[in-house]
Design goal:
Blueprint lengths: L5 E6 L3 H12 L4 E4 L6 H6 L1 H20 L13 H25 L3 E3 L3 E5 L2 E4 L2 E10 L3 E3 L11 E2 L12 E5 L3 H13 L2 E6 L10 H11 L4 E4 L3 E7 L2 E6 L4 E4 L1 E4 L3 E3 L32 E3 L10 H16 L13 E3 L5 E5 L2 H6 L4 E8 L4 H4 L5 E8 L5 E7 L3 H13 L4 H6 L24
Parallel strand pairs: 1-2, 1-6, 2-3, 6-17, 8-15, 9-10, 9-15, 10-11
Antiparallel strand pairs: 4-5, 5-6, 7-16, 12-13, 13-14, 18-19, 19-22, 20-21, 21-22
Helix pairs in contact: 1-7, 3-5
Protein backbone atom coordinates (compact mmCIF):
# COMPACT_ATOMS: atom_id res chain seq x y z
CA UNK A 1 0.00 0.00 0.00
CA UNK A 2 1.28 3.53 -0.77
CA UNK A 3 2.63 5.68 2.06
CA UNK A 4 0.97 9.10 2.44
CA UNK A 5 2.06 12.08 4.53
CA UNK A 6 -1.50 12.43 5.81
CA UNK A 7 -4.64 10.37 5.93
CA UNK A 8 -6.72 13.49 5.31
CA UNK A 9 -5.76 16.89 3.95
CA UNK A 10 -8.46 19.56 4.30
CA UNK A 11 -8.44 22.77 2.27
CA UNK A 12 -10.31 25.40 4.24
CA UNK A 13 -10.65 25.89 8.00
CA UNK A 14 -14.23 27.08 8.10
CA UNK A 15 -17.09 25.35 9.85
CA UNK A 16 -17.19 22.21 7.70
CA UNK A 17 -13.44 21.85 7.41
CA UNK A 18 -12.69 22.27 11.10
CA UNK A 19 -15.45 19.82 12.08
CA UNK A 20 -14.09 17.21 9.63
CA UNK A 21 -10.56 17.71 10.97
CA UNK A 22 -11.60 17.34 14.59
CA UNK A 23 -13.71 14.23 14.05
CA UNK A 24 -11.15 12.55 11.79
CA UNK A 25 -8.29 13.26 14.20
CA UNK A 26 -10.39 11.96 17.08
CA UNK A 27 -10.82 8.72 15.15
CA UNK A 28 -7.06 8.32 14.88
CA UNK A 29 -6.41 9.82 11.45
CA UNK A 30 -3.32 11.88 10.65
CA UNK A 31 -4.84 15.17 9.53
CA UNK A 32 -3.63 18.47 8.09
CA UNK A 33 -5.50 21.59 7.09
CA UNK A 34 -4.61 24.65 5.00
CA UNK A 35 -6.22 28.04 5.60
CA UNK A 36 -5.03 31.14 3.73
CA UNK A 37 -7.38 33.76 5.20
CA UNK A 38 -9.01 33.32 8.58
CA UNK A 39 -9.95 30.48 10.89
CA UNK A 40 -13.68 29.93 11.24
CA UNK A 41 -14.49 30.75 7.62
CA UNK A 42 -17.29 32.98 6.39
CA UNK A 43 -19.58 32.49 9.38
CA UNK A 44 -17.11 33.63 12.04
CA UNK A 45 -15.41 36.39 10.08
CA UNK A 46 -17.72 37.95 7.49
CA UNK A 47 -21.02 36.17 8.01
CA UNK A 48 -23.43 35.09 10.67
CA UNK A 49 -21.45 36.00 13.80
CA UNK A 50 -20.48 39.62 13.04
CA UNK A 51 -23.83 40.15 11.28
CA UNK A 52 -25.70 39.02 14.39
CA UNK A 53 -23.58 41.37 16.51
CA UNK A 54 -24.54 44.21 14.15
CA UNK A 55 -28.17 43.12 14.44
CA UNK A 56 -27.99 43.36 18.22
CA UNK A 57 -26.61 46.89 17.85
CA UNK A 58 -29.51 47.81 15.59
CA UNK A 59 -32.07 46.39 18.03
CA UNK A 60 -30.94 48.83 20.72
CA UNK A 61 -32.27 51.69 18.60
CA UNK A 62 -35.71 50.08 18.54
CA UNK A 63 -35.56 49.23 22.24
CA UNK A 64 -34.78 52.81 23.22
CA UNK A 65 -37.67 54.13 21.15
CA UNK A 66 -40.07 51.44 22.43
CA UNK A 67 -39.13 52.10 26.05
CA UNK A 68 -40.82 55.52 26.03
CA UNK A 69 -44.25 53.91 25.93
CA UNK A 70 -43.34 52.05 29.12
CA UNK A 71 -42.41 55.16 31.04
CA UNK A 72 -38.69 55.42 30.37
CA UNK A 73 -37.34 58.88 29.59
CA UNK A 74 -33.99 58.17 27.95
CA UNK A 75 -31.91 61.22 27.00
CA UNK A 76 -31.09 61.73 23.34
CA UNK A 77 -28.48 59.14 22.40
CA UNK A 78 -25.92 58.78 19.62
CA UNK A 79 -24.34 55.80 17.91
CA UNK A 80 -20.57 55.31 17.57
CA UNK A 81 -19.68 53.10 14.60
CA UNK A 82 -16.03 52.93 15.66
CA UNK A 83 -16.91 51.42 19.04
CA UNK A 84 -19.04 48.71 17.45
CA UNK A 85 -16.31 47.92 14.91
CA UNK A 86 -13.58 47.71 17.54
CA UNK A 87 -15.56 45.47 19.87
CA UNK A 88 -16.67 43.28 16.96
CA UNK A 89 -13.06 42.82 15.90
CA UNK A 90 -12.04 41.83 19.43
CA UNK A 91 -14.70 39.12 19.51
CA UNK A 92 -13.89 37.82 16.01
CA UNK A 93 -10.18 37.63 16.85
CA UNK A 94 -11.07 35.64 19.97
CA UNK A 95 -13.09 33.19 17.88
CA UNK A 96 -10.26 32.90 15.34
CA UNK A 97 -7.94 31.80 18.13
CA UNK A 98 -10.49 29.30 19.41
CA UNK A 99 -10.89 27.67 16.00
CA UNK A 100 -7.13 27.42 15.56
CA UNK A 101 -6.79 25.96 19.07
CA UNK A 102 -9.44 23.32 18.29
CA UNK A 103 -7.27 22.14 15.42
CA UNK A 104 -3.99 22.21 17.30
CA UNK A 105 -5.43 20.61 20.44
CA UNK A 106 -6.63 17.70 18.30
CA UNK A 107 -3.20 17.15 16.75
CA UNK A 108 -4.10 18.59 13.34
CA UNK A 109 -1.16 20.10 11.47
CA UNK A 110 -2.06 23.63 10.40
CA UNK A 111 -0.71 25.35 7.28
CA UNK A 112 -1.53 29.06 7.21
CA UNK A 113 -1.10 29.20 3.45
CA UNK A 114 -2.84 28.74 0.12
CA UNK A 115 -3.23 25.12 -0.96
CA UNK A 116 -3.56 23.85 -4.52
CA UNK A 117 -4.32 20.35 -5.69
CA UNK A 118 -1.55 18.91 -7.88
CA UNK A 119 -3.04 15.47 -8.49
CA UNK A 120 -5.55 13.18 -6.84
CA UNK A 121 -3.29 12.51 -3.86
CA UNK A 122 -0.98 15.56 -3.78
CA UNK A 123 -1.39 19.12 -2.55
CA UNK A 124 1.06 21.99 -2.96
CA UNK A 125 1.13 24.14 0.18
CA UNK A 126 3.68 26.51 1.71
CA UNK A 127 6.17 25.76 -1.05
CA UNK A 128 6.09 22.00 -0.67
CA UNK A 129 4.23 19.00 -2.01
CA UNK A 130 2.45 16.80 0.52
CA UNK A 131 0.49 13.63 -0.12
CA UNK A 132 -2.80 12.50 1.36
CA UNK A 133 -4.96 9.42 1.12
CA UNK A 134 -8.03 11.67 1.02
CA UNK A 135 -8.47 15.35 0.20
CA UNK A 136 -11.45 17.38 1.45
CA UNK A 137 -12.39 20.68 -0.21
CA UNK A 138 -14.11 23.02 2.24
CA UNK A 139 -13.31 26.47 0.85
CA UNK A 140 -16.80 27.94 1.17
CA UNK A 141 -18.14 30.77 -0.98
CA UNK A 142 -17.29 34.29 -2.06
CA UNK A 143 -19.46 37.36 -2.80
CA UNK A 144 -20.70 37.67 -6.37
CA UNK A 145 -21.19 41.08 -7.99
CA UNK A 146 -23.11 41.48 -11.28
CA UNK A 147 -21.15 42.89 -14.22
CA UNK A 148 -22.17 46.45 -15.05
CA UNK A 149 -20.33 49.71 -15.62
CA UNK A 150 -18.82 50.93 -12.37
CA UNK A 151 -19.34 47.68 -10.44
CA UNK A 152 -15.81 48.09 -9.08
CA UNK A 153 -17.11 50.87 -6.82
CA UNK A 154 -19.39 48.63 -4.76
CA UNK A 155 -18.80 47.09 -1.35
CA UNK A 156 -19.53 43.40 -0.78
CA UNK A 157 -20.81 41.61 2.31
CA UNK A 158 -17.14 40.90 3.12
CA UNK A 159 -16.20 44.58 2.99
CA UNK A 160 -19.09 45.91 5.03
CA UNK A 161 -17.69 44.56 8.29
CA UNK A 162 -14.55 46.66 7.86
CA UNK A 163 -15.89 50.05 6.75
CA UNK A 164 -13.99 52.85 8.48
CA UNK A 165 -17.07 55.08 8.69
CA UNK A 166 -20.83 54.62 8.59
CA UNK A 167 -22.12 55.92 5.23
CA UNK A 168 -24.80 58.62 5.63
CA UNK A 169 -26.58 57.36 2.49
CA UNK A 170 -26.40 53.66 1.68
CA UNK A 171 -27.81 51.71 -1.24
CA UNK A 172 -28.15 47.96 -0.62
CA UNK A 173 -28.58 45.89 -3.77
CA UNK A 174 -30.23 42.48 -3.65
CA UNK A 175 -33.37 40.79 -2.37
CA UNK A 176 -31.98 37.78 -0.54
CA UNK A 177 -31.44 37.34 3.17
CA UNK A 178 -28.02 39.08 3.21
CA UNK A 179 -29.41 42.21 1.55
CA UNK A 180 -32.54 42.29 3.68
CA UNK A 181 -30.57 41.86 6.90
CA UNK A 182 -28.07 44.59 6.12
CA UNK A 183 -30.72 47.02 4.93
CA UNK A 184 -32.76 46.70 8.12
CA UNK A 185 -29.59 46.87 10.26
CA UNK A 186 -28.01 49.96 8.70
CA UNK A 187 -31.20 51.99 8.62
CA UNK A 188 -31.32 51.56 12.41
CA UNK A 189 -27.66 52.41 12.88
CA UNK A 190 -28.28 55.76 11.23
CA UNK A 191 -27.73 55.39 7.49
CA UNK A 192 -30.41 56.65 5.12
CA UNK A 193 -30.95 53.25 3.51
CA UNK A 194 -32.42 52.26 0.16
CA UNK A 195 -32.91 48.60 -0.80
CA UNK A 196 -32.96 47.92 -4.54
CA UNK A 197 -34.05 44.61 -6.02
CA UNK A 198 -34.99 43.44 -9.50
CA UNK A 199 -38.03 41.49 -8.24
CA UNK A 200 -41.31 42.80 -6.84
CA UNK A 201 -41.01 41.00 -3.48
CA UNK A 202 -38.05 40.24 -1.24
CA UNK A 203 -36.63 36.84 -0.24
CA UNK A 204 -37.19 34.69 -3.31
CA UNK A 205 -37.55 31.04 -2.34
CA UNK A 206 -39.37 31.72 0.92
CA UNK A 207 -43.11 31.19 1.38
CA UNK A 208 -45.17 33.57 -0.75
CA UNK A 209 -47.31 34.94 2.10
CA UNK A 210 -44.21 35.47 4.22
CA UNK A 211 -42.45 37.27 1.34
CA UNK A 212 -45.38 39.62 0.89
CA UNK A 213 -45.59 40.30 4.62
CA UNK A 214 -41.85 40.89 5.21
CA UNK A 215 -41.58 43.13 2.16
CA UNK A 216 -44.25 45.38 3.64
CA UNK A 217 -42.64 45.34 7.09
CA UNK A 218 -39.16 46.15 5.77
CA UNK A 219 -40.69 48.98 3.74
CA UNK A 220 -41.73 50.76 6.95
CA UNK A 221 -38.10 51.63 7.74
CA UNK A 222 -36.20 51.17 4.48
CA UNK A 223 -36.91 52.87 1.16
CA UNK A 224 -37.65 50.07 -1.32
CA UNK A 225 -36.67 50.38 -4.98
CA UNK A 226 -38.18 47.24 -6.51
CA UNK A 227 -38.47 45.93 -10.06
CA UNK A 228 -35.30 47.55 -11.34
CA UNK A 229 -31.59 46.84 -11.86
CA UNK A 230 -28.41 48.92 -11.86
CA UNK A 231 -26.92 49.78 -15.24
CA UNK A 232 -24.10 52.08 -14.11
CA UNK A 233 -22.34 53.53 -11.07
CA UNK A 234 -20.22 56.68 -11.45
CA UNK A 235 -18.15 58.58 -8.94
CA UNK A 236 -19.67 61.97 -8.18
CA UNK A 237 -17.59 64.25 -5.95
CA UNK A 238 -17.28 62.26 -2.69
CA UNK A 239 -20.27 60.06 -3.46
CA UNK A 240 -21.67 57.77 -6.12
CA UNK A 241 -24.34 58.31 -8.76
CA UNK A 242 -26.30 55.14 -9.47
CA UNK A 243 -28.34 54.76 -12.68
CA UNK A 244 -31.10 52.14 -13.05
CA UNK A 245 -32.73 50.55 -16.09
CA UNK A 246 -35.96 52.29 -15.04
CA UNK A 247 -34.31 55.62 -15.85
CA UNK A 248 -34.10 56.66 -12.20
CA UNK A 249 -30.88 57.85 -10.58
CA UNK A 250 -29.71 57.98 -6.97
CA UNK A 251 -26.95 59.85 -5.18
CA UNK A 252 -25.45 57.82 -2.33
CA UNK A 253 -22.25 57.59 -0.33
CA UNK A 254 -21.82 53.81 -0.67
CA UNK A 255 -23.33 50.85 -2.51
CA UNK A 256 -23.43 47.45 -0.85
CA UNK A 257 -23.88 44.67 -3.38
CA UNK A 258 -25.48 41.77 -1.53
CA UNK A 259 -26.46 39.82 -4.61
CA UNK A 260 -25.35 36.41 -3.44
CA UNK A 261 -22.27 34.25 -3.00
CA UNK A 262 -20.79 31.63 -5.31
CA UNK A 263 -18.65 28.58 -4.51
CA UNK A 264 -14.97 29.46 -4.07
CA UNK A 265 -13.11 27.04 -6.35
CA UNK A 266 -10.81 29.37 -8.29
CA UNK A 267 -7.12 28.67 -7.77
CA UNK A 268 -7.64 25.24 -6.22
CA UNK A 269 -6.02 23.37 -9.10
CA UNK A 270 -9.19 21.45 -9.91
CA UNK A 271 -8.17 21.45 -13.57
CA UNK A 272 -5.45 18.98 -12.53
CA UNK A 273 -7.94 16.35 -11.38
CA UNK A 274 -11.22 14.82 -12.45
CA UNK A 275 -13.51 16.96 -10.25
CA UNK A 276 -16.74 17.98 -11.94
CA UNK A 277 -18.10 21.48 -11.37
CA UNK A 278 -21.68 22.70 -11.75
CA UNK A 279 -22.66 25.65 -13.95
CA UNK A 280 -22.00 28.15 -11.15
CA UNK A 281 -18.66 26.63 -10.15
CA UNK A 282 -19.87 24.44 -7.30
CA UNK A 283 -18.17 21.10 -6.71
CA UNK A 284 -20.45 18.23 -7.73
CA UNK A 285 -20.65 15.46 -5.11
CA UNK A 286 -22.71 12.33 -4.47
CA UNK A 287 -24.65 11.53 -1.30
CA UNK A 288 -21.35 10.67 0.43
CA UNK A 289 -19.87 14.06 -0.57
CA UNK A 290 -17.48 12.26 -2.89
CA UNK A 291 -16.49 14.08 -6.08
CA UNK A 292 -15.94 12.47 -9.46
CA UNK A 293 -12.34 11.97 -8.28
CA UNK A 294 -12.96 9.06 -5.84
CA UNK A 295 -10.57 10.11 -3.05
CA UNK A 296 -11.47 13.83 -3.16
CA UNK A 297 -14.50 15.02 -1.15
CA UNK A 298 -16.20 18.38 -0.64
CA UNK A 299 -18.59 19.90 1.90
CA UNK A 300 -20.19 23.20 2.81
CA UNK A 301 -20.94 26.22 0.67
CA UNK A 302 -18.50 25.07 -2.01
CA UNK A 303 -20.91 22.29 -3.06
CA UNK A 304 -23.78 24.75 -3.44
CA UNK A 305 -26.52 22.81 -1.67
CA UNK A 306 -27.70 24.66 1.44
CA UNK A 307 -25.32 27.42 2.49
CA UNK A 308 -25.80 27.26 6.26
CA UNK A 309 -23.14 26.79 8.93
CA UNK A 310 -24.92 23.91 10.75
CA UNK A 311 -25.32 22.13 7.40
CA UNK A 312 -21.59 22.39 6.69
CA UNK A 313 -20.85 21.09 10.20
CA UNK A 314 -23.09 18.07 9.66
CA UNK A 315 -21.61 17.36 6.23
CA UNK A 316 -18.02 17.55 7.50
CA UNK A 317 -18.83 15.19 10.34
CA UNK A 318 -20.47 12.69 7.99
CA UNK A 319 -17.39 12.60 5.72
CA UNK A 320 -14.93 12.14 8.58
CA UNK A 321 -16.91 9.34 10.17
CA UNK A 322 -17.49 7.60 6.85
CA UNK A 323 -13.76 7.64 6.00
CA UNK A 324 -12.32 6.70 9.37
CA UNK A 325 -14.94 4.72 11.26
CA UNK A 326 -16.86 3.03 8.43
CA UNK A 327 -19.99 4.70 9.81
CA UNK A 328 -22.18 6.48 7.30
CA UNK A 329 -25.30 8.47 8.09
CA UNK A 330 -26.92 10.01 5.02
CA UNK A 331 -27.42 13.77 5.22
CA UNK A 332 -31.05 14.81 5.20
CA UNK A 333 -31.85 18.25 3.84
CA UNK A 334 -35.52 18.02 4.78
CA UNK A 335 -36.97 20.25 7.44
CA UNK A 336 -33.82 22.27 8.09
CA UNK A 337 -34.73 25.40 10.08
CA UNK A 338 -33.27 28.73 9.08
CA UNK A 339 -33.62 32.35 10.13
CA UNK A 340 -33.22 35.77 8.57
CA UNK A 341 -32.02 38.28 11.15
CA UNK A 342 -33.74 41.26 9.64
CA UNK A 343 -36.05 43.53 11.62
CA UNK A 344 -38.48 41.95 12.37
CA UNK A 345 -36.85 38.52 12.40
CA UNK A 346 -38.00 35.78 10.07
CA UNK A 347 -37.62 32.03 10.57
CA UNK A 348 -38.89 28.98 8.76
CA UNK A 349 -38.81 25.21 8.81
CA UNK A 350 -40.13 22.70 6.30
CA UNK A 351 -42.01 23.30 3.07
CA UNK A 352 -43.34 26.54 1.69
CA UNK A 353 -46.91 26.54 0.46
CA UNK A 354 -45.65 26.70 -3.10
CA UNK A 355 -43.41 23.66 -2.60
CA UNK A 356 -46.24 21.66 -1.04
CA UNK A 357 -48.56 22.43 -3.92
CA UNK A 358 -45.84 21.65 -6.49
CA UNK A 359 -45.47 18.23 -4.83
CA UNK A 360 -49.26 17.77 -5.03
CA UNK A 361 -49.60 17.47 -1.27
CA UNK A 362 -53.10 18.17 -0.03
CA UNK A 363 -52.64 20.74 2.73
CA UNK A 364 -54.54 22.72 5.29
CA UNK A 365 -53.21 26.25 5.77
CA UNK A 366 -53.36 28.23 9.02
CA UNK A 367 -52.27 31.86 9.21
CA UNK A 368 -52.39 34.64 11.77
CA UNK A 369 -51.25 38.25 11.74
CA UNK A 370 -51.07 39.80 15.20
CA UNK A 371 -49.72 42.82 16.99
CA UNK A 372 -47.18 41.68 19.62
CA UNK A 373 -48.25 42.62 23.15
CA UNK A 374 -45.15 44.78 23.59
CA UNK A 375 -46.24 47.02 20.72
CA UNK A 376 -49.55 47.88 22.34
CA UNK A 377 -47.63 50.27 24.62
CA UNK A 378 -44.49 50.92 22.57
CA UNK A 379 -46.46 52.52 19.76
CA UNK A 380 -44.56 50.51 17.16
CA UNK A 381 -46.50 49.66 14.00
CA UNK A 382 -44.54 46.42 13.58
CA UNK A 383 -46.76 43.38 13.18
CA UNK A 384 -46.01 39.66 13.40
CA UNK A 385 -47.15 36.74 11.28
CA UNK A 386 -47.20 32.97 11.63
CA UNK A 387 -48.18 30.27 9.18
CA UNK A 388 -48.60 26.50 9.46
CA UNK A 389 -48.95 23.97 6.65
CA UNK A 390 -50.51 20.65 7.59
CA UNK A 391 -50.52 17.51 5.45
CA UNK A 392 -54.19 16.47 5.25
CA UNK A 393 -53.37 12.76 4.88
CA UNK A 394 -51.13 12.46 7.96
CA UNK A 395 -52.02 15.59 9.99
CA UNK A 396 -48.27 16.27 10.23
CA UNK A 397 -47.07 19.87 10.35
CA UNK A 398 -44.87 20.05 7.24
CA UNK A 399 -44.27 23.79 7.08
CA UNK A 400 -43.87 26.41 9.81
CA UNK A 401 -43.10 30.06 9.09
CA UNK A 402 -42.81 33.09 11.33
CA UNK A 403 -42.08 36.80 11.13
CA UNK A 404 -41.72 38.43 14.51
CA UNK A 405 -39.51 39.01 17.55
CA UNK A 406 -36.89 36.31 18.21
CA UNK A 407 -38.20 34.18 15.36
CA UNK A 408 -35.00 32.13 15.19
CA UNK A 409 -35.12 31.30 18.87
CA UNK A 410 -38.75 30.16 18.67
CA UNK A 411 -38.61 28.16 15.45
CA UNK A 412 -35.58 26.14 16.58
CA UNK A 413 -37.72 24.41 19.19
CA UNK A 414 -40.59 23.79 16.80
CA UNK A 415 -38.12 22.29 14.32
CA UNK A 416 -37.39 19.53 16.84
CA UNK A 417 -41.10 18.73 17.03
CA UNK A 418 -41.46 18.75 13.27
CA UNK A 419 -38.50 16.44 12.76
CA UNK A 420 -40.07 14.12 15.31
CA UNK A 421 -43.23 14.01 13.18
CA UNK A 422 -45.48 16.25 15.27
CA UNK A 423 -49.07 16.51 14.10
CA UNK A 424 -51.46 19.42 14.19
CA UNK A 425 -53.46 17.53 16.80
CA UNK A 426 -50.37 17.40 19.01
CA UNK A 427 -49.78 21.12 18.47
CA UNK A 428 -53.41 21.75 19.48
CA UNK A 429 -53.10 19.54 22.57
CA UNK A 430 -50.06 21.47 23.81
CA UNK A 431 -50.78 24.10 26.44
CA UNK A 432 -49.44 27.49 25.44
CA UNK A 433 -47.36 29.81 27.60
CA UNK A 434 -49.38 32.96 28.14
CA UNK A 435 -48.84 35.73 27.30
CA UNK A 436 -46.26 34.94 24.61
CA UNK A 437 -46.18 35.15 20.86
CA UNK A 438 -45.09 31.49 20.70
CA UNK A 439 -48.47 30.34 22.04
CA UNK A 440 -50.03 31.43 18.76
CA UNK A 441 -48.57 28.28 17.18
CA UNK A 442 -50.65 26.03 19.45
CA UNK A 443 -53.89 28.04 19.40
CA UNK A 444 -54.54 28.21 15.64
CA UNK A 445 -57.84 26.50 14.88
CA UNK A 446 -59.36 28.16 11.80
CA UNK A 447 -58.18 26.81 8.46
CA UNK A 448 -57.73 29.21 5.61
CA UNK A 449 -60.38 28.43 3.01
CA UNK A 450 -59.03 30.07 -0.13
CA UNK A 451 -56.00 27.84 -0.78
CA UNK A 452 -54.75 24.29 -0.48
CA UNK A 453 -55.66 21.26 -2.55
Amino acid sequence: MPNFDYDLFVIGAGSGGVRACRIAAGLGANVAVAEERYFGGTCVNVGCVPKKLFSYAAHYRDDMIDSRGFGWDIPESSFNWGTLLTNKNIEINRLNRIYKSILEDNGVEVFEAHAQIVNSHTVEVAGQHVSAKYILIATGGWPWVPDYRGSEHVLTSNDVFHMETLPPRLLVVGGGYIAVEFASIFTRLGSETILSYRGDQLLRGFDGDIRQFITKQIGHDVTLNLGTEIVEICKNNNGLRVSFDSGNELEVDAVLSATGRTPLTAGLGLENVNVELSANGGVVVNNRFQTTEPNIFAVGDVINRIALTPVALAEGQIVARALFSNSFDAMSYKCIPTAVFCHPNLATCGLTEEEALDQHIAIDVYTAVVKPLKNTLSGSAEMAMIKLLVDQSSDRVIGLHMVGPDAGELVQGFAVAMNAGATKQQFDATVGIHPTFAEEFVTMRAKRKDKGI
